[in-house]
Amino acid sequence: MRKSILMALALSASMSVPVFAHNVVGGVYAIGNTIEGEVGFSNGDLAQAGIVVQVRDATGNVIGESVIEDEGMFVFDATKRIDHYFHADLSAGHVLELVLPADELPATLPGGSAPVTKASVTTSSVSMSGVDQVALEQMIEKAVAKQVKPLRKELAAYKEKASLQDVLGGIGYIFGLVGLGIWLRQRKQEKNRASVY
Q: Binning pLDDT at 50, 70 and 90, where does residue 18 land?
């Protein structure tokens, strides 16, 4: 009987050993009409180069493809201002599903609202035409995106890590309660046997 209690406790202890799993993490960002994406895993590994990323519209029609390059990055040039859905099968049950909303793309793309007419801006002795201003805005977007991308990746990895710890903690708690229940049942059976004799 003590042997069965020890086995139950050993089983519950072995079940609460942390399991190191990982999920797909990624993000997509618009820089002008260029959409950049990155794909990796919550454990820090990058997606393999050469994996095809399908780009679909809201109805599921394939509108293009991209390929994951080194560093887990892929690039797609948007030709319409619509929601873009990205799908990639990374094998072993790991699937990437990301969405870039249309409002993150320039309004000048077909399918968007009417382009805003830009008046020329004059400050001091500097004069910018609408074309120069668009180029300047695209340069600023690229610079900001370059700085923000690592922060978004770290935030996604942190969220994944925190939720994995919570799940594993809950599983360990459940197995602990199961072990306690088995121990109490065994103790009750011992008392019943002792009272019979």
A: very low
Highest mean predicted confidence (pLDDT) among 1-15, 24-38, 51-65, 134-148: 51-65
DSSP state of 174: H
Phi, psi angle pair for 34, to nearest 5°: -95, 130
What token pair was written down for 61?
Answer: 């029609």
Using the structure block, give the residue that is written with the tokens 């968007």: 112
Q: Which residues pair with 62 in a beta bridge?
A: 56
Alpha helices in 17-129 (DSSP H): none
Percent of the chain with pLDDT over 70: 64
Name the nearest CA neighbour of 21 among 161, 174, 170, 172: 161
Question: Packing angle between helix 130-196 and helix 2-15, nearest 10 degrees?
Answer: 180
> pLDDT of 33-60, one tens digit each?
889 888 888 777 888 889 999 999 999 9
Q: End-to-end CA distance of the chain: give it in Å, rounded.
A: 16
3-state secondary structure 110-139: CCCCCCCCCCCEEECCEEECHHHHHHHHHH
